[in-house]
Amino acid sequence: MKAEIISIGSEILRGQITDTNANFIAKKLVELGIDLEHISAVSDNPESLLSTLKLALQRSDLIITTGGLGPTEDDITYHTIARALNLKLIKYPEAEENLKKFFKKINRTISPSNLKQIYLPEGAKIIINQYGTAPAMILEKDNKIVCSFPGVPHEMKNLIEENLVPYLKEKFPPSVIKKSKILKITGLGESSVNELIRDYINKQTNFSFGIYANPEDIQVQITTQAPTEKEVEKLLQSSVNQLTKILDNYVYGSNEETIEEVVGNLLKTKKLKVAVAESCTGGMMGEIITRIPGSSEYFQGGVISYNVRVKEDLLKVPSKVIKKYGEVSRQVAKLMAEGVQKYCHSNIGISITGIAGPGGATEKKKVGLVYMALADGKKTVAQKHQLFGNRQLIRLRSARRALNMLRMYLTEK
Amino acid sequence: MKAEIISIGSEILRGQITDTNANFIAKKLVELGIDLEHISAVSDNPESLLSTLKLALQRSDLIITTGGLGPTEDDITYHTIARALNLKLIKYPEAEENLKKFFKKINRTISPSNLKQIYLPEGAKIIINQYGTAPAMILEKDNKIVCSFPGVPHEMKNLIEENLVPYLKEKFPPSVIKKSKILKITGLGESSVNELIRDYINKQTNFSFGIYANPEDIQVQITTQAPTEKEVEKLLQSSVNQLTKILDNYVYGSNEETIEEVVGNLLKTKKLKVAVAESCTGGMMGEIITRIPGSSEYFQGGVISYNVRVKEDLLKVPSKVIKKYGEVSRQVAKLMAEGVQKYCHSNIGISITGIAGPGGATEKKKVGLVYMALADGKKTVAQKHQLFGNRQLIRLRSARRALNMLRMYLTEK
Question: Can you tell me the ipTM of this complex?
Answer without folding.
Answer: 0.81
